[in-house]
Amino acid sequence: MAGARTASTPPDSAPADTRPDTDDALLTVRATEGDEDAFAVLVRRHAPSLTRLATRLLGNRTEAEDAVQDAFLSAWRRLPEFQGRSSFGTWIYRIVTNRCLNVLRARRPTAPLEAVGDVPAAEHSTSPARITEGRDAARALREALDLLSAEQRACWVLRELDGRSYEFVAETVGISQEAVRARVFRARRCLTQALGAWR
Q1: Contact predicate 135/143, CB 8 Å
Q2: Taking a C-beta distance cutoff of 8 angstroms, is the pair 146, 59 a contact?
Q3: Could you tell me the CA-to-CA distances from 138 to 119, 174, 175 in Å, in that order?
Q4: Are 57 and 97 in contact (CB under 8 A)?
């Protein structure tokens, strides 16, 4: 599918509708009608935030990029099913999240820890002690996240790291807001216990 493969197309060869006033709804309509250029714009527009989300969920940049690529390919194939009940952004977030959940569920209980750390070192210090502390804290967070169930991790990442509303998380993960709150609560408690030494 040409649209998804052009996520990193240089600006000089980008479709004309990259201007901010071309909204997702119009681009989605065009893409649904088979306009690959319109879909390529959607890919470029949403890929960075989706890759950040997938990296936080999976803890592995390569797996995250694969998940996002797979999600866009799936979205392109499923566009005829898209009925506009939610925005394209919410729809593609749901597809990426579900793809990541499938990857997490397929893992062994102890997941690999090659991830890009999302926890910055304290302050802007460049001292070896501070750098080591920052790396150790990032590793501790990745290990703690590996203790969570796939659903707890997804809900916590979407709520706490992505700053999404409970309503958005519920729609994205496909569960009730009450279930989201319960999973976030349990994830917070688990992470607090696991990261006690870093508080």
Answers
A1: no
A2: yes
A3: 5, 29, 29
A4: yes
Residues with Cβ within 8 Å of residue 36, at least 6 apart in sequence: 1, 2, 3, 6
- Residue type for position 96: V
- For residue 39, report the phi and psi dihedrals to the nearest 5 degrees: -65, -35
Could you tell me the CA-to-CA distances from 87 to 24, 35, 81, 120, 165 in Å, in that order? 8, 18, 13, 32, 15
Q: Per residue of the chain (199 residues), give pLDDT as tens.
A: 544 444 443 334 444 444 444 688 899 999 999 999 999 999 999 999 999 999 999 988 999 999 999 999 999 999 988 877 778 988 998 999 999 999 988 875 544 433 334 444 334 444 545 555 567 777 777 788 888 888 999 999 999 988 899 998 998 888 999 999 999 999 988 888 877 755 5
pTM: 0.70
Pairwise CA distance, residues 98 & 190, whole Å: 22
